[in-house]
């Protein structure tokens, strides 16, 4: 049987790095995307290889269509035809109310979180859909609990971008259901990664434990498990699902 080849955007750090390592343990070869932190991407690649899987790290800003195409070209050349995509790369910009949010930050969030995911999904579908000569596959979009909570006072623009990702998930799942491609999403809650420091508040995951019914933030591995299941044959009848992974939030 041909090996599964899965593209993970933002695979250098946080949830994406954890997903890449978990998929390797499940028998996927992994294309690891990163945009700035090459050393972190190389660490992910080493972790993937330690499981006996193949990996390649590629610098790609997913908001740039040309770079997305080059990323998929490299992964296909080095690892073989793509059978899976984890649309994980995402940004928030600084925490703040909408009136404090700059146009540049809003635009960046939409460019990366929405357009970037659309570019990657389109390219993956062209590789995987039976309509286009592929052998099927699966997409998992990394959304956020913010998509339904709305992120008031923190990042309404980011919440809106993640709600768009959920709509993408539902629509594309129906568009591709007969073509051998499943499309699902996870909505993580508060997960311990660098993203909170990038927002300007490294201690954010621990600041309000009472807001999370489980009274603790989640670990990237706890999201990776859900992503891995959605990509697996165990989820063969699951498409269009948006799975909350948020400790009850
Ligand atoms: P993180 O630790 O900040 O890592 C972000 C990853 O995305 C890094 O690998 C980074 O690459 C990459 N990236 C950033 N901008 C990119 C771009 N324009 N093109 C390509 N790659 C880019 O974030 P995280 O917490 O793991 O978040 C991963 C996903 O989960 C995001 O979509 C986020 O919105 C979502 N999420 C996170 C949480 C949470 O609490 N952590 C909750 C809900 C949803 P470099 O390493 O090269 O910078």
From TrEMBL:
SMART domains: PKS_KR
Keyword hit for ATP-binding: no
Superkingdom per UniProt: Bacteria
Keywords: Oxidoreductase
A Pfam match: adh_short_C2
InterPro entries: KR_dom, NAD(P)-bd_dom_sf, Sc_DH/Rdtase_CS, SDR_fam
CDD domains: SDR_c (cd05233)
GO terms, biological process: fatty acid elongation
GO terms, molecular function: oxidoreductase activity, acting on the CH-OH group of donors, NAD or NADP as acceptor
Domain Ketoreductase: 4-209
Family of this protein: Belongs to the short-chain dehydrogenases/reductases (SDR) family.
PANTHER family membership: 3-OXOACYL-[ACYL-CARRIER-PROTEIN] REDUCTASE, CHLOROPLASTIC, SHORT-CHAIN DEHYDROGENASES/REDUCTASES FAMILY MEMBER
Protein name (database record): SDR family oxidoreductase
Protein source organism: Streptomyces chumphonensis
């Amino acid at each position: 049987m041909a090996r599964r080849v899965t593209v993970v955007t933002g695979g250098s750090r946080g949830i994406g790095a954890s997903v890449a390592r978990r998929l390797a343990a499940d028998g996927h070869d992994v294309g690891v995307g990163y945009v700035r932190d090459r050393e972190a991407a190389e660490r992910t690649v080493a972790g993937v290889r330690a499981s006996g899987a193949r990996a390649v790290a590629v610098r790609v800003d997913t908001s740039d269509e040309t770079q997305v195409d080059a990323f998929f070209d490299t992964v296909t050349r080095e690892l073989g035809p793509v059978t899976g995509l984890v649309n994980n790369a995402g940004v928030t910009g600084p925490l703040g109310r909408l009136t404090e949010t700059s146009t540049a930050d809003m635009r960046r969030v939409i460019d990366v979180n929405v357009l970037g995911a659309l570019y990657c999904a389109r390219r993956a579908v062209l590789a995987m859909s039976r309509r286009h000569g592929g052998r099927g596959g699966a997409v998992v979009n990394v959304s956020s609990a913010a998509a339904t909570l709305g992120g008031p006072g923190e990042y309404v623009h980011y919440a809106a971008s993640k709600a768009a990702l959920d709509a993408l998930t539902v629509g594309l799942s129906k568009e591709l259901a007969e073509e051998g491609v499943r499309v699902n999403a996870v909505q993580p809650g508060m997960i311990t990664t660098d993203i909170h420091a990038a927002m300007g508040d490294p201690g954010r995951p621990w600041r309000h434990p009472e807001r999370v019914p489980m009274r603790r933030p989640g670990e990237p591995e706890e999201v990776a498990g859900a992503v891995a299941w959605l990509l697996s044959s165990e989820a063969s009848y699951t498409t269009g699902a948006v799975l909350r992974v948020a400790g009850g939030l």
